[in-house]
Amino acid sequence: MSPDETPPNEEPAADALRPTCELTVATAAELRAELMRVTARGSDVLIDLAAVPHVDAAALQLFAAAAAAVRRAGHRLLLVGGRPAVAETVRLAGFADLLSTGP
């Protein structure tokens, strides 16, 4: 097995984004560029929201588009570590399936 191959019974590692600012219309262009970069790699995508104080509809729309893109490629997008208010915003917007409750 070459070093680039995933051993049997193991999932490929996820590409991770760890934003540290509000994800709003003001930061949407930067978030979109980062999401395009990681989704193009063809692996699972993890977005760690632990340091994100607020998300708005622009960010939620980008999460949905990125999730659809990685799903078409046979992968998944997960949002992890969200503060209670951020997680609640994601849930209320109908994207609870993107939230990870595990490690």
TrEMBL record:
InterPro entries: MlaB_ABC_Transporter, STAS_dom, STAS_dom_sf. Gene3D superfamilies: STAS domain (3.30.750.24). Residues 22-103 form the STAS domain. This is STAS domain-containing protein. The lineage of its organism: Bacteria, Pseudomonadati, Planctomycetota, Planctomycetia, Gemmatales.
